[in-house]
Amino acid sequence: MISLTTAINSETMYESTTQTRVRYAETDQMNVVYYGNYAQYFEIGRVESMRALGFTYKRMEDEGVIMPVVEMHIRYLRPATYDDLLTIKTQVRSLPVSYHIEFFQEVFNEENKLLAAGRVVLYFLKKDNWKRIDIPADLSNTLAKYF
Q: What distance in Å separates the CA atoms of residue 28 and residue 56, rounded to the nearest whole number?
């Protein structure tokens, strides 16, 4: 199950939330979500956040733009376990003006306790030659409404 909400925060930023449930295959022998799966939860948050803006990675790739992750930092605070309903908060805190976009992400459990927090940086690259390009104008214009 994935659900999504989008909000304009009182500060200038873009923020969305997405929910997903922990599947058995994502846990280890201790019934705890394996730490590497948080990168996937962050990806779910980013993909759904972009979709809420009217952009999909598929559409961007069809238009010749790819967005590889070039940097990721995650801080683990508490464990998630099998069948937990997780809320993934995704924020863009500043309007991208160049070839990269920075997402700040947090994962909460059903008690609204913070489980993990991190920052992910992606580059905008031209699909055919992998050269850095500026943020696509239509994405920039859409995000600008929040800043």
A: 31
pLDDT (tens digit per residue) in 50-66: 999 999 999 999 999 99
How many domains are there within the chain? Answer: 1
Per-residue model confidence as pLDDT tens digits over 29-42:
999 999 999 999 99
Active site residue 28: yes
Question: In angstroms, rounded to a whole number, what is the distance separating the alpha carbons of residues 105 and 118?
Answer: 5
Q: Closest Cα partner for 102 from 117, 118, 88, 121?
A: 121
Q: Which two tokens stand for residue 8?
A: 């304009």
Q: How many CA atoms lie within 13 A of 108 on its CB side?
A: 11
Domain hosting residue 70, numbered range: 3-144
Catalytic member of 28, 62, 83, 134: 28
Q: What is the CATH number of the domain that holds 109?
A: 3.10.129.10
What is the Cα–Cα distance from 123 to 68, expressed in whole angstroms?
A: 6
Q: Which two tokens stand for residue 32?
A: 């705890």
CB 41 within 8 A of CB 107: yes
Residue 93: what residue type? R
